[in-house]
Specification:
- This protein has about 1000 residues and is of the alpha/beta class.
- It folds into six domains: about 10-315, Serine Threonine Protein Phosphatase 5, Tetratricopeptide repeat; about 315-405, Serine Threonine Protein Phosphatase 5, Tetratricopeptide repeat (Alpha Horseshoe); about 430-535, Helix Hairpins (Orthogonal Bundle); about 545-700, Histidine kinase-like ATPase, C-terminal domain (Heat Shock Protein 90, 2-Layer Sandwich), CATH 3.30.565; about 725-860, 3-Layer(aba) Sandwich (Rossmann fold); about 875-980, Homeodomain-like (Arc Repressor Mutant, subunit A, Orthogonal Bundle).
- The protein has 39 helices and twelve strands.
- The strands form three sheets. Strands 2-4-5-7-6 form a five-stranded mixed sheet.
- Strand 10 (about 780), helix 30 and strand 11 (about 810) form a beta-alpha-beta unit.
- Helix 3 (about 40-45) packs parallel to helix 6 (about 80-95) and helix 18 (about 315-330) packs antiparallel against helix 19.
- The protein is globular.
Length: about 1000
């Protein structure tokens, strides 16, 4: 991080007030039309600077300021002319048009001096100082800030003095003159208002950090957090967290450093400071490199580059490429390291970054030495040595120049102080001092009032901007929530329609039902588009890139439109490059892109027309075009076709919402691609798309994760059980439905009641209670519910020994891949999106029950019922171990009953019975008897023990009953078994 980026700058303009909302802009425009007094018109022109127009249309603000300057000059309103020049200077400075900024600030300073206008003079000289500072011409910048200090000091305006001192401190910090920087920051801290104090406090911390006083630096920065929170300055707060993270990284307190960096990144991301977000990702990459966590380091460096590409921050890209090369070299990925470092070397040459070039050549020398290419290693080593020596000489020259400058400044300051003291003694007059004091006090009160008003308006601007952001978030949440809420009613429309269609024979009624079905599905499609758009706006829609056969994928999607094209007598053709076989892309995004373009093409192409799809591979890109000879798009509307809700005038007769092409463009951009359109009215249109299809075009976070399923194992046995515990084979399985929508819960009940005994619960809390009480065979749960949602319910069920074995089907309106993965990770066995197909629900439920039965059989065959042999992998196995331990502990106790076992476990008789039955196929009494028989068999294998002894030691008090049970299990009498073992 460069030293200039370390400094928090404070730009003071006495006339800057809160930027107001759009209604203020409209109000000012109306006032301007009605105002006849020229001086008032000047003030109105300048007032646009403080409105939302400053952000939305800065060019118009500049034009208004120029009109204010021109009108002020005509009517000799010099104060208005000064304010206009300073406004223009400020606008050009923030646009980095420094020549224009210097011109207007100089005009403002000269005129302000002429009319003795203190506020205008301070604004002009502050602007000049900051512009020269921006250009790195520090010796020209300092005198302007000193003028402000001198003039404002005489007027008793401490706020202006503090602001100027802070800016001078910034310059000395940039020059490495830390003592001088601290002096000016301390002066700023003592005299400034809240905003200046927090800035000075932070900068003092940065100076101590540069001096190596890390504890002092931390102390100042941590104290500044409260000031930042009090003022609401989010940028400054994030800035503090970032540098606290850097200090903790230097101290090897990596966990705390990561915490600070993440806090800073979250705030910078929220206020759209992408430069700083990329900077922090670079910090995190270096931190993980220091810990030898190379995988994490690579992710952070690559994500930083991705952001820097969007803001054209080439220096940052070069430094990150250097860092990636260092990681690849450390992990022995020599070829990849070579490619990366050569790319960094080329960029360093272009940007003339000598320090980066020095480090790159050093690493390349080491790389080629590792590869055995000693010639190249020597060549790069020589380049590195030349660069290193040159840079060392430059640093030494800078150090000498700095020391000379410090000495000269010190000498001049001593001379100035001596002259000042002599003048003070010579001109000391008590009466003049009293008059001056009164004058300064009056001016100070006026300026304090002006500053207070300015600060108040600034706070209004901050609150207004916050309100606008909140309103935008409310809008996004509204679209998301309304889209989710559409899915449940659509389920209750589509499912009954599908149910009736299976049995209805009347053609007229079936046509009406198909009409309902088509329009409900169309509504679902529009809902999905709105939801996708809101996710894209919120940055929540992510790519899920996998490798597919792209040619086959495109062919199948085009084929889906062939019947529609044929019904409209349209010639639909498809030309696909067969090189498009295995490619990396997000199938869902590409399908939506293709479907939207084909739907539009077929919609606007008349009968007898043509629609042509062409897909080619160029380098590592898919080049896709969709062309038709339909209505076409007028040239004056072509530039607006990707705008949200925009519809071409001629398309209104065809219907539509105006969001299809908007969504298409956003999805293409998300896919790192481009889209363009060409069209001629009445001749047709052509849309061209270019999308990368290689793995290296995507970040690791955009690649799909490989899902792995670990089956749960179950026991089974065929031993009979006592009559009182038998469940008849033809008894229906119990299905628990957890859903808060009454219509939907009744609808699902009507679907299931023929094959299942259905139990209902109306929220997650009630569902958990009924699951524990009844131990159902399967659970169907909604995601979003009051009191406890489906995700939390799923977690509780999976972590409770009594319910961990029950299969769960999650029903939800959340169709994005992240939500699906969250549900599956939490323990859901199936994930169905609303509206769902009733047959699919029934089949998936039956498959889950069948899978559990098969796993139970496999579990019972492969795991012996002995505590020492059961591996503890999940809650079900822990439950078995607990039961086995209790039974074996009381194995010789003839009074060990089901009641005693359930009391030991703290469960009800039914819970114990259904859980054991699900896991092992045994009832509770059968389970106890089987363990006793296994123990008896083990005893009979030993020499010197009698059958009677084995029976009693295993807990049987009846020899005849023991003999009968033993023979039923092993097919042989205990006495014969004993003889065979002997």
């Amino acid at each position: 991080m460069s030293l200039k980026r370390l400094i928090l700058f404070f730009t003071f303009l006495s006339f800057i007030n809160a930027i107001q909302a759009q209604d203020e802009v409209d109000s000012l425009r109306k006032q301007l039309q009605l105002e006849n007094v020229d001086s008032n018109r000047v003030k109105l022109y300048l007032s646009f600077f403080y409105t939302d127009l400053y952000y939305s249309n800065p060019e118009e603000v500049i034009q208004f300021a120029k009109q204010a300057a021109s009108l002020s000059k005509q009517i000799a309103y010099k104060k208005g002319e000064v304010d206009a020049y300073n406004t223009l200077g400020y606008m050009y400075r923030i646009r980095s048009e420094n020549d224009s900024a210097l011109y207007y600030f100089e005009e403002g300073a000269e005129l302000a001096e002429e009319i003795d206008f203190l506020g205008g003079m301070a604004d002009a000289h502050t602007g000049l100082g900051n512009t020269y500072n921006q250009l790195g011409e520090w010796e020209k910048a300092i005198p302007h800030f000193e003028i402000v200090i001198k003039r404002a000091g005489k007027a008793g305006n401490n706020v202006l003095v503090a602001s100027a001192n802070n800016n001078i401190g910034n310059i000395y910090l940039s020059k490495g003159a830390y003592t001088k920087a601290l002096e000016h920051y301390q002066e700023s801290l003592e005299k400034g208002n809240l905003s200046i104090k927090e800035t000075a406090q932070i900068n003092i911390g940065l100076v101590h950090n540069q001096l190596g006083n890390f504890e002092k630096a931390k102390s100042y920065l941590q104290e500044s957090i409260e000031l930042c929170e009090k003022s609401g300055n989010k940028y400054a707060l994030a800035f503090v967290y970032q540098h606290l993270g850097a200090i903790e990284q230097q101290s090897a307190s990596y966990a705390l450093a990561v915490e600070y960096f993440n806090k800073a990144s979250a705030i910078f991301d929220a206020i759209n400071e992408r430069y700083n977000v990329s900077d922090i990702k670079t910090n995190l990459g270096n931190l993980y490199y220091d810990q030898a966590k190379y995988g994490k380091a690579l992710i952070e460096f690559r994500e930083s580059i991705a952001i820097q590409k969007t803001i054209e921050h080439d220096v940052g890209i070069c430094n990150n490429l250097l860092a990636i090369g260092k990681v690849l070299l450390a992990t022995k990925q020599l070829n990849a390291a070579e490619d990366t470092l050569l790319l960094a070397d080329q960029l360093a040459d272009t940007l003339q970054l000598l320090p980066a070039k020095s480090n790159i050549t050093k690493l390349l020398s080491q790389l080629y030495e590792s590869k055995g290419d000693l010639g190249k290693a020597l060549s790069f080593s020589k380049v590195h040595k030349v660069l290193y020596d040159s840079l060392t000489n430059i640093e030494q020259s800078k150090l000498v120049a700095e020391m000379e400058a410090k000495y000269e400044v010190s000498q001049k300051e001593q001379e100035i102080e001596l002259l000042s003291a002599e003048n003070q003694v010579a001109n000391l007059q008590l009466q003049k001092q009293q008059n001056l004091r009164n004058y300064l006090l009056t001016i100070a009160i006026i300026l304090i009032i002006l500053v207070a008003v300015g600060y108040s308006r600034y706070q209004i601007k901050v609150r207004a901007n916050t309100k606008l952001r909140e309103l935008d978030q409310v809008k996004t949440n509204f679209f998301t929530n309304i889209s989710h809420e559409f899915r449940t009613p659509l389920t209750l429309i589509l499912n009954p329609v599908e149910k009736i269609l299976k049995t209805e024979n009347d053609p007229a009624i079936k046509n009406d039902l198909h009409l309902v079905q088509r329009n409900a599905q169309r509504l679902l499609e529009l809902t999905n588009q709105i939801l996708d758009l809101s996710k894209l706006e919120a940055g929540k829609l992510k790519l899920v890139v996998q490798q597919h056969d792209l040619a086959k994928f495109i062919r199948m999607n085009v084929a889906a439109f062939e019947s529609l094209a044929a019904s409209r007598n349209i010639d639909l053709s498809c030309e696909i490059d067969e090189q498009l076989n295995l490619a990396f892309f997000d199938s869902d995004s590409v399908q939506k892109i293709l479907n939207n373009l084909l739907s539009n093409a077929l919609k606007f192409t008349p009968a007898g027309g043509m629609v042509r799809v062409q897909a080619l591979k160029e380098n590592e890109f898919l080049v896709l075009s969709v062309e038709d000879n339909g209505k076409g798009i007028p040239s004056d509307q072509l530039t607006h076709i990707f705008d949200r809700f925009h519809q071409v005038d001629s398309s209104e007769a065809y219907g539509g919402t105006g969001i299809g092409l908007t969504l298409t463009k956003e999805l293409v951009s998300l896919h790192h691609g481009t889209i363009s359109a060409k069209s001629t009215a009445e001749k047709g249109s052509r849309f061209d798309i270019q999308i990368p299809i290689s793995a290296r075009a995507y970040h690791q976070a955009e690649m799909a994760e490989q899902e792995q399923e670990t089956p749960t194992t179950f026991h089974d046995t065929t031993m009979p059980e006592p009559v009182e515990e038998v469940e008849l084979n033809n008894k229906k399985a119990i299905a628990l439905i957890v859903e808060d929508n009454l219509d939907l819960i009744h609808h699902i009940t009507s679907i299931l009641q023929a094959e299942y005994k259905v139990v209902q619960a109306h929220n997650g809390k009630e569902g958990m209670a009924k699951a524990v009480d009844l131990i159902p065979d399967i659970i169907i749960s909604d995601w979003m519910m009051p009191e406890m949602d489906g995700l939390e319910l799923c977690k509780l069920l999976r972590h409770d020994e009594r319910t961990s074995h029950i299969p769960i089907v999650m029903l939800t309106a959340k169709v994005d891949i992240e939500s699906k993965l969250d549900g599956l990770k939490t323990g859901a066995d199936e994930y169905l999106a609303k509206p769902f197909n009733t047959d699919e629900l029934l089949i998936r439920m039956q498959n889950l029950i069948n899978q559990r039965e098969q796993l139970r059989l496999k579990y019972n065959k492969t795991i012996a019922l002995s505590p020492s042999k059961v591996d503890v992998d999940n809650p079900d196995e822990r439950f078995l171990i607990k039961i086995l331990s209790i039974v074996e502990e009381h194995i010789s106790d003839t009074d060990l009953t089901v009641e005693k076992l359930q009391n030991e476990l703290g469960v009800s008789r039914m819970q114990l019975h259904r859980k054991l039955k699900a896991l092992t196929g045994f009832s509770t009494s059968e389970f106890i008897r089987d363990i006793r028989l296994q123990r008896a068999a083990d005893l009979l294998k030993a020499n010197g023990i009698q059958v009677t002894e084995a029976a009693y030691q295993s807990g049987f008090n009846s020899l005849s009953y023991f003999t009968q049970c033993f023979k039923n299990k092993y097919g042989i009498a205990p006495s014969d078994y004993h003889k065979n073992q002997a």
